């Protein structure tokens, strides 16, 4: 990703995603555009490829694509954050000062079974070095019993006041609470904005609340939702509620919970509003307790590509790759009207690569197949392959990594409404150990880490149980 890649030899190091120079990374933090540049911070353990005392790693970019690595922005140092600078957000205050609001974590017992969490601030005038605020912690005690679990402040401005939402729990019910401040230092508790009705998990992490298309959207990462068929199959989820926040009572009236990305590896998503008025999301491209073979090579974790959010009139969040990613495009391949039949392969034998963008449109009108789709990272004999398929009868998109290489096996399925549609568009971003799929201009997103052999570089299209026509194929080496 940049010249400071300290682990250049691992075949699974990503080419264009945000990673740490080495060692561990989890949530994106403090996404902000400051003095025209995009800043991304992330949870980082600089001394080990495993999670540990959290620091804030830091990169910045002029275009959301090419990232420059900066020095670590926050490290545990004070009584209120001695065991970790946990997740949080960034704002530019009323005087133009870049302000990070984060959670200071303290273990109360050596076995980490009890903790205390404080909300803290740190500021910078150059966007590189940060000073912890003398007023810290800016929130010390929540007015309810959450067993110490209250974290991940997301701060934004509404009219002339600052608001903060925090993820927390009471008993086994996850919830988010709202605070208000005039100066980012002195905070008043308003109340519970939203909480689990018993079906939405025991703890809500990494909340984010923003306005989009005339509605308020709450994105958060609940822990402990039980799997239900094709839904909620990862250890934890990230999803959203759409509604309306009453800034006086703090109550968020909302509809039902919907997962944001229906793949394997997507958690702790955060968003920001950029100077072009866009709402952009980045998530951790992994999941707690997932098998990470790269840890034996000295690193673990990465962030997703930046994704543009849009809200439909039906309250569905669409997630699309930001257009800036076109800057990565190199060699282009184009084909159209390819008739794909069962039992045939090697349609695209001239295209090879481990870093690719693919946009392929499959006809639903000219289709009698029961399944069709795209294969990437295939070995010569197809014993290794990562498959994106559409199951016509079930109207489901399937991300199949059972033969993707080393790592965890698995399939994720997601229903796709194609009623009235003449085609399906798959938009894929393949990096050395990841696949991000966007279907029909952001209606469905599925993300997964894969750990194939470096020689598994073939790409193909396929049909089963009948034929399908690929209306158009465009791919770029990245
Ligand atoms: C989410 C999370 C946050 C916490 C951080 C610690 O993945 O558990 O709630 O602040 O990671 O690294």
Automatic annotation (TrEMBL):
Listed name of the protein: Sucrose-6-phosphate hydrolase
Pfam families linked: Glyco_hydro_32C, Glyco_hydro_32N
Residue stretches making up the Glycosyl hydrolase family 32 N-terminal domain: 17-321
Subcellular location field: Cytoplasm
Entry-linked Gene3D superfamilies: Exo-inulinase, domain 1, Glycosyl hydrolase domain, family 43
One MF term in the entry's GO annotations: hydrolase activity
Secretion signal, residue range per the UniProt entry: none
Enzyme class: hydrolase
Family label: Belongs to the glycosyl hydrolase 32 family.
Function, in words: Enables the bacterium to metabolize sucrose as a sole carbon source.
Reaction it catalyzes: Hydrolysis of terminal non-reducing beta-D-fructofuranoside residues in beta-D-fructofuranosides
E.C. number: 3.2.1.26
Highest taxon above the source species: Bacteria
Glycosyl hydrolase family 32 C-terminal domain: residues covered: 324-476
Keyword annotations: Carbohydrate metabolism, Cytoplasm, Glycosidase, Hydrolase
Pathway(s) where this gene product acts: Glycan biosynthesis; sucrose metabolism
